[in-house]
UniProtKB/TrEMBL annotation:
This is DASH complex subunit DAD1. InterPro entries: DASH_Dad1. Pfam families: DASH_Dad1 (PF08649). Residues 1-22, 85-106 are annotated as: Disordered. Residues 95-106 have a biased composition (Basic and acidic residues). One of its GO terms (biological process) is cell division. It is found in: Chromosome, Centromere, Kinetochore; Cytoplasm, Cytoskeleton, Spindle; Nucleus. The keyword 4Fe-4S does not apply.
Length: 106
């Protein structure tokens, strides 16, 4: 046991590392039960927090990948935009000529 694993709580009468605790004789059985249940709940909370942290890390990686893919399509988007802008200007001029011809044929 090293010093970082050793914990002593003078208020609770519990000494030991985080995995095994030795109880002072001054603790009642109710206090021991409370401390045991508290440790179980703390372990559960710790595991849940680790799970949440791992999930957030995975989400962050996924979002970064999606942003990277989106940035790769910026060039393609600009090309299509230029294409559509070019076809709009061409079709605008030819549509007006077609309308004039349609009107003259009637």
């Amino acid at each position: 046991m090293n010093d970082s694993e050793n914990t002593t709580s003078k208020n609770s009468g519990v000494t030991g590392n985080t995995n095994t605790f030795q109880y002072d004789a001054s603790l009642s059985s109710g206090d021991r039960h409370f401390i045991e249940q508290r440790n179980i709940i703390l372990q559960d909370v710790n595991g849940t927090m680790d799970s949440i942290l791992n999930g957030l890390n995975e989400l962050n990686i996924s979002l970064e990948n999606n942003i990277a893919v989106g940035k790769e399509f910026e060039v393609v988007t600009k090309l299509w935009k230029n294409f559509y802008n070019g076809t709009d200007s061409v079709t605008d001029g030819s549509d007006s000529e077609k309308e004039d011809k349609d009107v003259n044929m009637d």
